[in-house]
């Protein structure tokens, strides 16, 4: 981290991003076990720093725990109604806030462009499904890789007639362009929905939304990030 803060890193174009529902399925494990859910709620000050990876048993950590419990759980017992809030808490703690900090830090210090993305495409397959179904449990960790690589042990090889084939074409083209030129959209094309992937800066948190359509947006999960910046200010 000190090297990043000091700007001591290789100045090369960087593509970075995440999936829409990173690690939200961890909430289901808690909610599916009533004793776990009750224990997490009753001992949140003790459990939260362990589950969500921040310092414990300090005034700062107690304040953070109270803030997280209020924002994500509304200070209510953990039940099925808590599924979305608790899932977002896992996602924000494990991936989203760290990804935000790192990409913002690098973009403010690098001479080369940073290209940020949020993968939102929900296909028929996933690395996590609702229990006892084949219904994907969101766009979870690693789900973008389904369209970049043929993962033969888990998923079928997509054919041209499959609905996933267009996402395979789009994603592999973006990645190939970046490898070859340092720019994922060096020119507009119909395949890539004529989008121009804007670079991210510390002042303009632009990102490419990768769904059924490619489009530019800015400020991922802004209300969540604002809370984490308040509770855990960047050093």
Automatic annotation (TrEMBL):
All copies of the Carboxylesterase type B domain together span 9-228
Q: What's one GO MF term for it? A: carboxylic ester hydrolase activity
Q: Which InterPro entries match?
A: AB_hydrolase_fold, CarbesteraseB
Q: Which Pfam families match?
A: COesterase (PF00135)
Keyword annotations of the record: Glycoprotein, Hydrolase, Serine esterase
Give the family per the record: Belongs to the type-B carboxylesterase/lipase family.
Which PANTHER family does the protein's record reference?
CARBOXYLIC ESTER HYDROLASE (PTHR43142)
Write down what this protein is called.
Carboxylesterase type B domain-containing protein
Q: Which organism is it from?
A: Cryptotermes secundus
């Amino acid at each position: 981290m000190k090297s990043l803060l000091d700007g001591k890193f290789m100045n090369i174009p960087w593509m970075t991003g995440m999936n829409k529902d990173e690690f939200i399925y961890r909430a289901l494990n808690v909610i599916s076990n009533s004793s776990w859910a009750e224990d997490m709620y009753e001992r949140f000050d003790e459990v939260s720093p362990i589950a969500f990876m921040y310092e414990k048993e300090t005034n700062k950590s107690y304040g953070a725990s109270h803030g997280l419990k209020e924002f994500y759980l509304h200070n209510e017992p953990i039940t099925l109604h808590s599924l979305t809030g608790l899932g977002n808490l896992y996602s924000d703690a494990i991936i989203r806030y760290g990804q935000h900090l790192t990409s913002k830090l690098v973009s403010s210090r690098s001479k080369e462009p940073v290209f940020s993305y949020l993968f939102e495409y929900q296909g028929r397959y996933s690395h996590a499904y609702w229990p006892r179904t084949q219904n994907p449990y969101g766009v979870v960790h690693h789900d973008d890789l389904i369209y970049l690589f043929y993962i033969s042990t888990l998923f079928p090889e997509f054919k041209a007639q499959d609905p996933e084939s267009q996402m395979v074409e789009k994603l592999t083209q973006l990645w190939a362009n970046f490898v070859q030129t340092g720019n994922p959209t060096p020119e507009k094309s119909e395949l890539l929905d004529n989008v121009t992937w804007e670079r991210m800066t510390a002042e303009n948190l632009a990102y490419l939304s990768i769904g059924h359509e490619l489009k530019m947006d800015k400020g991922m999960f802004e209300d969540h990030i604002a809370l984490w910046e308040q509770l855990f200010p960047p050093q």
